[in-house]
Every structure is written in structure tokens, then in C-alpha cells.
């Protein structure tokens, strides 16, 4: 498996979505629809990434893993086990609902899936914020009263963000994304979300969106106070580390290179600023054609069996997601 796996995005209508993926990344979006999410890498029953270039063009991620699990995920990966991450862009034209994803124990009781996720801020308006965790000292009783009083926002920890910032949001942390953020979300392969509050908004059908107050109250971590983001910095380093994955930020100057070796682990490479070429003059064309460019906004899967070299076509920031096969 020598190909960098590049997939067709799957666009999702969301009441809070917009058209920023079009203006920022030069993509062609479905016309006149609020596109809130672009699922970049996904292996779920309801959504499958499809390879858009190369030897495996037209194959789904599920088909590739079933046929070549050892090459893509490593020799111990069962062919019927799904890819463990879901990678997506979020275009937040409006504020998202206040929500929570259940921790593993609550998920088992409620019939859902846990979801720890990392948000990397690619672009942010001047006054945009994130809402993550509780204000220090807020109790469950105060939280429930605030739901009834429509004062819940006062219970949630809020902070301003800028491009380059990121935060790891664990299952059980109550959270929302403010309007004006373009975010790369790298998460566990889950789509369980419990909405506890939606700011009085209606959905695309004109009706109030469903809330899941009981499930939310059973899922929230009541001792989770005021988590801090990782602020952007012009240096390489780890920006997220948890049991589910590790994310490293790579900052490359024009012409700088980095390589990944074969038979170490599969990885996800995300270009969040600039662009990179696959291969170099000393790499055979059969492995990685020199000059093939990954543009800003692309997210690709680097299979276990592949060895790849990347060269920055301009000053670039990349995210390398690893350690998700444990």
C-alpha cells in the first residue's frame, strides 16, 4: 500500500453552517445550502469515505480495510473493525448547540458511543469564543435550575480563540462552538451527541430541534471546571494527547521536509496552513509522484505499509494524528 489515501469530502447540511469551505479552500459546495460539516475521513454505516485519486480510486475506506487491513492499519487490525477516527471540518457561521458526548460508562447505559475530540482553530473572527466545561463551582442543581430559567450560558466556561489555538474535548465535557470559527475536528469514530440547550433556535425544517436533557445530565462530568486551550505557537510539538490519539503540530518552512517510515503505524496528515508536495527527487515515482500537492484543507490517510516524504511548497502547518490503533 504505497498510496497516500485522499478521499472525496462528504458535505453535511447544518442549520448553523455556511459557505466558508468554499471561500477558504476553493471547494465547490452544493448550491445554496448551509454546509456546516465536511466529513473528510469516515468509516461508518451511514457514511463512507471514497478514494478520489490513484490506484484505489472509487474504493471506500471500508472496502480497503476489509481487503487489506494489514497494509492500511497494521498486522493486528481485524478486517471487520472500523477505522477508529472521524475527521471533519466545521464551518460555524452561527453558534452550535450546547451539547455533550457520553463517557464510556454512560454511553453503555444510554445506547450511545463515547466521543473525545480535538478542535484545531484554522480561522476565527475577532470576537469568536469556545464554550467548554463548567464555570468553577457550578453544581448539577445550579445547572438544572439554569436550564429552566434560560440562563445556562452563565454556567459554562467561555474563552476567546484565534487561529492556531486548539483544545481537547473529552467525553463528558459540556461544550459549544461560537459563531465565526472554522475548525478541524479530529475525533473518535462516533456520532452520538446529546443537546442540552440550543439558544431557542429552530432547525432547517422550521421546528425546534430535539433536546436530550436527561441523557445530557447523565453524561456531564460535574467536576470538570474551566479547561484551558493550547494556544497557537510557531513551533512543532504535541497539541493533544489522550488514550484515543495523539496530535502533533509540524511547522515547516518553504522547502523543509519530513518523512514517515513504513510499518510503524497508520497516520492522518492534515494540512491546516500552506501546502506540501508528496515525495522528492530521490523518491521513486511508483512510491510518491514528485510534485503531487496536498493543498490547505486536505486530510489524508497514510497507510501502515507506506513510506512517505513531504516537502513544504510554502510555509506550512500540518497536524499529524497518531497512536489511534491501541
From TrEMBL:
It comes from the Bacteria. The keyword Flavoprotein does not apply. Binds 1 zinc ion per subunit. Keywords: Isomerase, Metal-binding, Zinc. InterPro entries: Carb_Metab_Reg_Kinase/Isom, Man6P_isomerase_Firm_short, PMI_typeI_cat, RmlC-like_jellyroll, RmlC_Cupin_sf. Its cofactor is Zn(2+). Gene3D superfamilies: Jelly Rolls (2.60.120.10). GO terms for biological process: carbohydrate metabolic process. Zn(2+) binds at residues 101, 117, 175. Pfam families: PMI_typeI_cat (PF20511). The active site is at residue 195. GO terms for molecular function: mannose-6-phosphate isomerase activity; zinc ion binding. Residues 5-107 form the Phosphomannose isomerase type I catalytic domain. SUPFAM superfamilies: RmlC-like cupins. This is Mannose-6-phosphate isomerase type I.
Amino acid at each position: 500500500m504505497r498510496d497516500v489515501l485522499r478521499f472525496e469530502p462528504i458535505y453535511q447540511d447544518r442549520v448553523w453552517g455556511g459557505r466558508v469551505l468554499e471561500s477558504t479552500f476553493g471547494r465547490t459546495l452544493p448550491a445554496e445550502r448551509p454546509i456546516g460539516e465536511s466529513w473528510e475521513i469516515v468509516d461508518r454505516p451511514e457514511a463512507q469515505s471514497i478514494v478520489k485519486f490513484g490506484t484505489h480510486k472509487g474504493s471506500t475506506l471500508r472496502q480497503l480495510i476489509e481487503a487489506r487491513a494489514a497494509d492500511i492499519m497494521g498486522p493486528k487490525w481485524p478486517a471487520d473493525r472500523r477505522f477508529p477516527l472521524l475527521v471533519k471540518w466545521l464551518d460555524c457561521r452561527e453558534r452550535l448547540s450546547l451539547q455533550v458526548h457520553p463517557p464510556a460508562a454512560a454511553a453503555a447505559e444510554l445506547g450511545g458511543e463515547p466521543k473525545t475530540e480535538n478542535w484545531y482553530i484554522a480561522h476565527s473572527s475577532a470576537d469568536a469564543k469556545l464554550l467548554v466545561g463548567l464555570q468553577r463551582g457550578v453544581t448539577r442543581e445550579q445547572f438544572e435550575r439554569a436550564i429552566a430559567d434560560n440562563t445556562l450560558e452563565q454556567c459554562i466556561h467561555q474563552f476567546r480563540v484565534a487561529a492556531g489555538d486548539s483544545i481537547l474535548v473529552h467525553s463528558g465535557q459540556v461544550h459549544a462552538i461560537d459563531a465565526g470559527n472554522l475548525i478541524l475536528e479530529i475525533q473518535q469514530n462516533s456520532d452520538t451527541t446529546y443537546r442540552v440547550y440550543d439558544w431557542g433556535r429552530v432547525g432547517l425544517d422550521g421546528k425546534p430541534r430535539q433536546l436530550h436533557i436527561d441523557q445530557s445530565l447523565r453524561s456531564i462530568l460535574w467536576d470538570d471546571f474551566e479547561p484551558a486551550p493550547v494556544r497557537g505557537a510557531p513551533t512543532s510539538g504535541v497539541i493533544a494527547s489522550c488514550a484515543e490519539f495523539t496530535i502533533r503540530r509540524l511547522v515547516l518552512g518553504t522547502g523543509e521536509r519530513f518523512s514517515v517510515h513504513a510499518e510503524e503505524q497508520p497516520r492522518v496528515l492534515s494540512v491546516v496552513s500552506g501546502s506540501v508536495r508528496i515525495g522528492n527527487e530521490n523518491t521513486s515515482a511508483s512510491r510518491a509522484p514528485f510534485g503531487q500537492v496536498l493543498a490547505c484543507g486536505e486530510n489524508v490517510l497514510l497507510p501502515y505499509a507506506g513510506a512517505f516524504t513531504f516537502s513544504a511548497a510554502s510555509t506550512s502547518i500540518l497536524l499529524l494524528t497518531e497512536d489511534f490503533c491501541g
